[in-house]
Amino acid sequence: MSKILITGGAGYIGSMLCTKLLHEGHNVTVVDLLKYDKGSLNHLYFNKKFKLICDDVRNISLMKKLIRKHDIIIPLAALVGAPLCEKFKRDAVSTNLGSIKTLCRLATKRNKIIYLTTNSGYGIGEKNKYCDENSPLKPISLYGRTKCDGEELVKSKVKNFVCFRLATVFGHSYRMRSDLLVNNFVHTAIKKKKLTLFEPHFRRNFIHVRDVVNAIIFTIKNFKKIKNEVYNLGLSSANISKIMLAKKIKKQYKKLQIKIVTNRKDPDKRDYFVSNKKIEKKGFKATISLDEGISELIQIFTNDKNKVINNY
Ligand SMILES: NC(=O)c1ccc[n+]([C@@H]2O[C@H](COP(=O)([O-])OP(=O)(O)OC[C@H]3O[C@@H](n4cnc5c(N)ncnc54)[C@H](O)[C@@H]3O)[C@@H](O)[C@H]2O)c1
After folding, report:
1. How far is the CA of 58 from the centre of ligand 1 (A)?
2. 276-292: per-residue pLDDT in tens?
């Protein structure tokens, strides 16, 4: 069993990941400032293999000590999403990129780094483009740039790494995010019973948060086989347009009205679909469907309005 350090482990992906890694028998240490949800890891305190350090990932002396003591490092701590990074530019750069620079400097060949970035830079201005790992990433937001630069650093400086470029994540987590597209559409559908779509045929790729966790578990088990490569990570059957997504939600939530506005442009210009074949060929395939995710989200947002927490 490994000693795993997760920065940002109390977040949307991290809280689900820590839970599963402990279940698998690993030792898990989290460094997190608990910016959004102070209780997202409460259910883990009973476990003797779990430790939460409420501190800043930019605390270099702390990170130096911790990196030395752990085999696997999963750096999730970040200001996530374009609006949040625009609002807190300096913190975005020092957290998203500065902490990765420190990690790359301090990591030794004993450490395995699993880094998550976003695939969203693929599709800017590339209508109907099918993207694989060789397609150029052209991030237009500060968020996207810090994540792409982080990936470049990990690739060039770290001996043992795996990078995943994630599709837009959806589904339930102990620390909920309702700003992600599927979560947001379901939340809006329940709250307003109406979804207004601009440029409804723009396509995106999606993945359930539990599939992201499953991919990381797969990576730990198959590290040698897949290491030192970058992989797209998404659900291949979920390369779908916004209108298709809205219709899927309506199928399960009949009260929903879908309104299409033709005379307005969506400021979000992403329209692309993604090939996940590279990681699938290595043996991992995301399987949790959008329908399953929508069904769980309908339950959550219907029963617990407090589950709705945005990053900005
Ligand atoms: N959710 C997605 O769709 C998605 C897609 C692609 C990549 N990612 C990447 O996955 C990672 C996790 O994303 P998430 O959706 O779980 O986000 P999140 O906002 O839920 O989690 C980020 C966590 O980092 C913590 N944090 C922020 N600044 C910190 C600091 N200075 N020191 C310590 N902790 C700090 C926050 O308290 C929070 O718990 C990020 O690196 C993100 O870029 C997420």
Report:
1. 14
2. 999 999 999 999 999 99
pTM metric for this prediction: 0.95
Q: How far is the CA of 178 from the centre of ligand 1 (A)?
A: 14
| Residue in the structure block whose two tokens are 């001996």 | 159
Structure confidence by residue, pLDDT tens digits, 203-225: 889 999 999 999 999 999 999 99
Domain positions in the chain are: 3-170+206-236, 181-204+238-270+288-307
CB 298 within 8 A of CB 186: yes
Residue 18 Cα to ligand 1 middle (Å): 13
The atom of ligand 1 lying closest to the CA of 34 is 37
Please, what's the largest Cα pairwise distance for the chain? 58
Q: CA nearest 96: which of 142, 63, 62, 61?
A: 142
Residue 13: the pLDDT is: 98
**How many other β-carbons are positioned within 10 Å of the β-carbon of residue 25?**
9
Q: Which CATH number fits domain 3-170+206-236: 1.20.1510.10, 3.10.20.90, 3.40.30.10, 3.40.50.720?
A: 3.40.50.720
Residue 80 alpha carbon to ligand 1 centre in Å: 5
Confidence band of 307 (pLDDT split at 50, 70, 90): low
Where does 181-204+238-270+288-307 sit in CATH, by number? 3.90.25.10
Nearest to 30 by CA among 43, 41, 46: 41
Atom of ligand 1 nearest to the CA of 143: 43
Q: What is the pLDDT of residue 312?
A: 45
pLDDT averaged over the chain? 92
